[in-house]
Amino acid sequence: MTALGTIEASELVARRPVGHSLEAAFYTGREFFDLDIAAIFAKHWIFVATEAELPEPGDYLTTTLGDYSIIVLRDDEENIRSFHNVCRHRGARILDQQRGSVGNIVCGYHKWTYGTDGALRHAPSQPPGFDPGCFGLKPVHARSVAGLVFVCLADEPPRDFADVSARIEPYLAPHRLREAKVAAQVDLVEQGNWKLVMENNRECYHCDGHPELLRTFFPTYGYTDANLPARLRPAHERYLRVDAELRAICDDSGLPYRLIEELDTRATGFRIQRDPLDLAGESFTADGKAACRRPLGDVPTPRLGHLSLHLQPNSWFHVVSDHAVTFSALPIAPDRTLLRTTWLVAPDAVEGVDYDLETLLKIWTATNEQDAHLVARAQQGIGSPAYEPGPYAPTEYQVEAFCNWYIGRLREHLR
């Protein structure tokens, strides 16, 4: 970003009105895209994968954050590690596949060879005195939280991540995600800025556009008794009844379920809660019944609603009694975002025997496609000279929290 660009960005950040959407430049400008990479994606913990995607030593995946390419792999000791995907010889990209398995990490240019611990093992034709210990792969901070893999590019990651991890792990632990397996993974490129993808996910003001999801998702999400429309009163009363039943089950089983919401008051903003589902209350299916016969982890009953987790800046998760769904939003360009959705099932679940893949994927595949259409419409509208920031409805308070967190992170970076 140029000096002039920095000044303009600082002015836009400083004048952002609380309770309103951001100005167009935040969603459309290359300057803000580059700033988002530097201030957000290069400084915070970013969800990039699940341990289930790296089941064996040597299994790896690569991911892109702006100009950064990162390797995430399971090393020979079965630990999760991450490195910059840059050879220490002359900087060539080492691994160019999205995923695979290696014994050693070999650069295809001059065959410099690294162990899965990142140490340089072999560098052909080097002079006497060459010290391979000085040329290991540059490490990236990596941490698994109950089977969810996060990386941080910063030299000093946000210190509060350990506290956040300790608070969310008890919610996730009963589902044993580290032992789960991948049933499916779908990449969808949305034609919108990454912030629009996240904002869209943080509200249900638009959820009448998700008929499949609303079969099991209560349509009262985000409402309170004070702003609940009369048409939603029957659904709300049904929600209160089912919620009381879920709380009793969790209390008897020692499962945490209470809402923790710290979205914009800390570096690693998060929200977690176990909430009931409608209909059979077991899973995201047309009738609410489990999509997989094998339970996901140590669950006392299929009727456990959904465990919902949201982490700033780029991820959200839904875990039900029979499967889990993870979502990661990764910026590609000012107007394009990769949404990666991964479905996890029990390790002994067999496709075609214990679950039907189409049934398992149907609800969230439809919802993602619907959201992609809405995000594209938002991006198109914001690109018009007629656009100006509009006010958020009370049910969009989590969108405001996301934007408030984002603006706070930019202020700190620009300072």
The SSE string, one letter per element, is HHHEEEEEEEEEEHEHHEEEEEEHH
Q: What percent strand?
A: 15-25%
Largest sheet: 7 strands, antiparallel
CATH homology superfamily name of the largest domain? Naphthalene 1,2-dioxygenase Alpha Subunit, Chain A, domain 1
Distance linking N and C termini: 15 Å
Which class best fits the helix and strand makeup?
alpha+beta
Low-confidence stretches: none
Q: Could you please say which CATH topology of the largest domain applies here?
A: Naphthalene 1,2-dioxygenase Alpha Subunit, Chain A, domain 1
Helical residues, percent: 25-40%
Shape: globular
Protein name: Rieske 2Fe-2S family protein
Domain Rieske: 45-151
Keywords: 2Fe-2S, Iron, Iron-sulfur, Metal-binding, Oxidoreductase
Organism: Saccharopolyspora shandongensis
Write the layout of secondary structure elements.
Elements: H1 3-14, H2 24-28, H3 30-41, E1 46-50, E2 59-65, E3 68-74, E4 80-84, E5 99-101, E6 105-106, E7 113-114, E8 120-122, E9 141-145, E10 148-152, H4 161-172, E11 181-190, H5 194-201, H6 233-253, E12 260-262, E13 270-275, E14 306-311, E15 315-319, E16 324-333, E17 336-345, H7 357-382, H8 397-414
Antiparallel strand pairs: 1-10, 2-3, 2-5, 3-4, 6-7, 7-8, 9-10, 11-17, 12-13, 13-14, 14-15, 15-16, 16-17
GO molecular function: 2 iron, 2 sulfur cluster binding; iron ion binding; monooxygenase activity; oxidoreductase activity, acting on paired donors, with incorporation or reduction of molecular oxygen
Protein name: Rieske 2Fe-2S family protein
Keywords: 2Fe-2S, Iron, Iron-sulfur, Metal-binding, Oxidoreductase
